[in-house]
UniProtKB/TrEMBL annotation:
<dbReference type="InterPro" id="IPR027492">
    <property type="entry name" value="RNA_MTrfase_RlmN"/>
</dbReference>
<comment type="similarity">
    <text>Belongs to the radical SAM superfamily. RlmN family.</text>
</comment>
<dbReference type="GO" id="GO:0070475">
    <property type="term" value="P:rRNA base methylation"/>
</dbReference>
<dbReference type="GO" id="GO:0002935">
    <property type="term" value="F:tRNA (adenine(37)-C2)-methyltransferase activity"/>
</dbReference>
<dbReference type="InterPro" id="IPR048641">
    <property type="entry name" value="RlmN_N"/>
</dbReference>
<feature type="binding site">
    <location>
        <begin position="169"/>
        <end position="170"/>
    </location>
    <ligand>
        <name>S-adenosyl-L-methionine</name>
    </ligand>
</feature>
<dbReference type="InterPro" id="IPR058240">
    <property type="entry name" value="rSAM_sf"/>
</dbReference>
<keyword id="KW-0004">4Fe-4S</keyword>
<feature type="binding site">
    <location>
        <position position="301"/>
    </location>
    <ligand>
        <name>S-adenosyl-L-methionine</name>
    </ligand>
</feature>
<keyword id="KW-0489">Methyltransferase</keyword>
<dbReference type="GO" id="GO:0000049">
    <property type="term" value="F:tRNA binding"/>
</dbReference>
<keyword id="KW-0408">Iron</keyword>
<feature type="binding site">
    <location>
        <position position="201"/>
    </location>
    <ligand>
        <name>S-adenosyl-L-methionine</name>
    </ligand>
</feature>
<dbReference type="GO" id="GO:0030488">
    <property type="term" value="P:tRNA methylation"/>
</dbReference>
<dbReference type="GO" id="GO:0005737">
    <property type="term" value="C:cytoplasm"/>
</dbReference>
<keyword id="KW-0808">Transferase</keyword>
<comment type="function">
    <text>Specifically methylates position 2 of adenine 2503 in 23S rRNA and position 2 of adenine 37 in tRNAs. m2A2503 modification seems to play a crucial role in the proofreading step occurring at the peptidyl transferase center and thus would serve to optimize ribosomal fidelity.</text>
</comment>
Amino acid sequence: MTATTKVNLLGLTQPQLEGFFESIGEKRFRAGQVMKWIHHFGVDDFEAMSNIGKALREKLRACAEIRGPEIVSQDISSDGTRKWVVRVASGSCVETVYIPQAGRGTLCVSSQAGCSLDCSFCSTGKQGFNSDLTAAEIIGQVWIANKSFGTVPAKIDRAVTNVVMMGMGEPLMNFDNVVAAMQIMMDDLGYGISKRKVTLSTSGVAPMIDELGKVIDVSLALSLHAPNDELRNRLVPINRKYPLAVVLDACRRYISRLGEKRVLTVEYTLLKDVNDQPEHAAQMIELLRDVPCKINLIPFNPFPFSGYERPSNNAIRRFQDLLHQAGHNVTVRTTRGDDIDAACGQLVGQVMDRTRRSERHIAVRQLGDEAAPSASAVNRT
Ligand code: SAH
Ligand code: SF4
């Protein structure tokens, strides 16, 4: 058996791993033992699995492997934020960011290399789509982050207490692999993270929100960014397919299924003079009137040639106050890891663009440079 045909055990959920052991003529309980070695102890070598006999270890070595994505670089910011660039099987690179906060550590995980949805203010979207990450490549990001805080094979200190699927890519466009990885995150044999502390963020792939509700119970975040369809069609093109009313209905259904006081997180990237005016706040209040939610405002994080600007602190505070006065719970996301380009929407990786969108984007830029209109005029039309 060649290396390429070995089964990668890193991305298998407990039932899948039980099935694997059965398929090689072994007992199902081996799955629990091996999962603990992989996820609790960060082990990638069957030899270190001391409660597994030599014969089985050899059998496993012949037909299986434990392989995370290759680490290309690891940066640590002055504020403790860590960023990894990892290479996935398609050859593209994606980014993972760890953000330490008092009493918790949040890992921002990527689900795709690039993204096909092309939101106008997102650098990942500007790179086009290359590939879906496998379940092993997704959970592998949690595995790598935790391992960086402990010594293998000693039991690893769980540095990652929260996971947000807010890195590169649209998680609902890579449904099966994202669901499997989130199941491992929540499994006690995996990372034992509670369902409230695993959050999937979506730009609004409405039918898949319903599918998600059928198979898993995690927290949901909707990237709203505009309070009316006309503006949202421009900022978040998937809105043309699933307009606000359809997406919000799906979110309401998802949240009501969860019961027990769970709420939707509404993410809203504030773009200067585009969606940050009092009229937008007023429309948002009306739109979210009957949606149990908390609102997270994300001041735009600039990247070259984006064509957008971050609003002033006063404008951000004014927007927050208006929502707050209407009774909303509103937070403003602070930028972390600025010195290592680890902020939301700045994750660039190194995507081999199958859609050739980045080439078109560059062409538009050059056209813009020659004709010398402002960058914003180029990108906002
Ligand atoms: N595809 C998913 C998750 C990844 S993006 C989604 O869109 O929800 C995570 C969040 O960062 C989203 O709310 C996204 O809109 C926001 N974002 C993207 N680019 C940004 C930028 N340049 N500045 C601030 N937030 C940005
Ligand atoms: Fe994709 Fe999310 Fe970026 Fe939109 S904001 S392009 S859905 S990663």
